Amino acid sequence: MTTVGGLTVPVPRHVARAAANVRARIGSDGLADLRPTESEVVHSTADRTIRRFRPSNGVITGAPILLVTPLAATSIAFDLRRGCSFVAFLKEAGHDVYVVDYGPVNFADRSRGIEHWVDDVIPDAVRVVSADAGGVDVHLAGWSLGGIFAVFTAAAHPDLPLKSVTPIASPFDLRRVPLFATLRPLDRVFGPYTVAPFYRLLGIVPAPLTSLGFKIASVDKYLTRPWVVLTNLDDRDHLEQIEAVDRFMNSMYAYPGRTFGQLYHVIMRSNEFATGSMQIAGRAVDLTAIDVPVMVVAGTGDGLAPESAVRHLVDLVGGAPEVRYGAYPGGHLGVLTGRSARDTMWPAYVGFLADCEAGSETHSR
After folding, report:
1. How far is the C-alpha of 336 from the C-alpha of 70, rounded, in Å?
2. CA-CA distance, 188 to 353, in Å (whole number)?
3. Which of 25, 60, 62, 166 has a CA that sits 20 to 30 A from residue 284's CA?
4. How far is CA 139 from CA 151, 176, 224, 336, in A?
5. Domain tally for the chain?
6. What is the pLDDT, as a whole number, of residue 200?
7. How far apart (Å, rounded) are the C-alpha atoms in residues 27 and 295?
8. What's the pLDDT score for residue 214?
9. 156-199: per-residue pLDDT in tens?
10. Which residues in the chain belong to E strands, given as ranges?
11. CA–CA separation, 46 vs 43, rounded Å?
């Protein structure tokens, strides 16, 4: 930092490095290496694709991992960029890693509700992964809403070949999310006349609006973006991360109208997730039915899923043989795939998986 005319101006510490980064950026499409990690499709239908990421040396030392994306977000979240990819880290730790991606959503998908993912997509993906890996149990993990869906899937289908379940930045007590708290008074006044007619008429929540929603949740980061860029012009890794996050934010999908309506009701009115029991396809699904180890991951700087909202799940999974809670640096996306996650959350998660596998060779049913 330096002061000019009484104003504090961000100045990078290493001017030569900053100049080199600027030259490299001007002469290219970007600094970050955004090529996807090598993978292959093992299963594909009209509404889902499952990709497998295999260790480079071909040596598999742990059970397979299935990563579940939230609605609207693409699987880019798990493979943000070369040098900061969750899937690359996990596969080099000795696991076959699988990611399920739902693809774009359109008007024809408007009637899909939460049960579509909890009773169909995710259970089917678990079975596909287990079969592809030789019939073994699967570590299931999901980010944000993907983590919530993963948890309810594990509770709704105790017959699935699961070894563990890990929600990452998944808020279960939505009354503790400040953003939602500020919107509830508006919902009481305007919600019945604006929100429901909107998504019922369109059938979906368009992709630009879902992208805007993610950005609003991190509005402080967008307002300070120019300052951050100028201050870190000499830090190429930081600049690459900003580019990769921007690419992810601009790759959002639309939301099916019915699922949006269900989630809107939970968020604004019922707070049903916090009870640990939810009506799905006409029957109650209780989280106490989960009988595999659970790791609950929160971000210490997450405004969309604050620690208290995430940690609430620990009290809801009383049937699990082990429940491990960890809070790690980062915001909603950062705790999953931020630069600090490489040295904090990722190794902790791999340690949890190793402990699960050391504790039992198979999960009994």
Report:
1. 13
2. 44
3. 166
4. 12, 28, 38, 16
5. 1
6. 58
7. 44
8. 61
9. 999 999 999 999 999 999 999 887 766 666 556 555 545 555 55
10. 2-4, 7-9, 40-45, 48-53, 65-68, 97-101, 138-143, 162-168, 204-205, 255-256, 277-280, 283-286, 294-299, 323-328
11. 11
Residue 255 CA to residue 73 CA, distance in Å, equals 10
Comparing C-alpha atoms, which of 72, 77, 161 is closest to residue 117? 72
Question: What whole-number distance in Å separates Cα of residue 362 and Cα of residue 88?
Answer: 25
Contacts of 20 (CB under 8 A, 6+ apart): none
Which H or E run includes 93? none
Mean pLDDT of the chain: 85
DSSP calls for 171-234: -S-GGG-HHHHHHHHHHHHHHHHHHHHHHHHHSEE-HHHHHHHHHHHTHHHHHTHHHHHHHTTT
- Residue 326, strand partner residues: 297
User: Domain containing 97: what range?
Assistant: 34-359
- 193 burial (CB, 10 Å; 0-12 / 13-18 / 19+) is exposed
Q: Domain for residue 14, yes or no?
A: no
Across 151-160, 178-187, 351-360, which has the greatest mean pLDDT?
A: 151-160
- What are residue 140's DSSP bridge partners? 66, 165
Q: Is residue 2 part of a domain?
A: no
DSSP structure class, residue 81: B
Residue labelled with tokens 């989960």: 290
Q: Is the pLDDT of residue 310 over 80?
A: yes
Q: Which two tokens stand for residue 197?
A: 């007619």
57: Cβ–Cβ under 8 A, 6 or more apart, which residues? Answer: none
- Residue 338: CB atoms within 10 Å: 22
Q: Residue 270: give its domain's CATH number.
A: 3.40.50.1820
Give, to the nearest 10 degrees, the angle between helix 236-249 and helix 15-26.
Answer: 40
Q: Is 25 within the bounds of a domain?
A: no
Tokens of residue 43, six digits: 């299963």
Residue 309 in contact with residue 176, Cβ under 8 Å? yes
Assigned domain for 8 exists: no
Half-sphere exposure for 66 (CA within 13 Å, toward CB): 38
What are the pLDDT digits (tens) for 206-261?
566 666 666 655 555 655 666 677 777 878 899 999 999 989 988 888 778 788 78
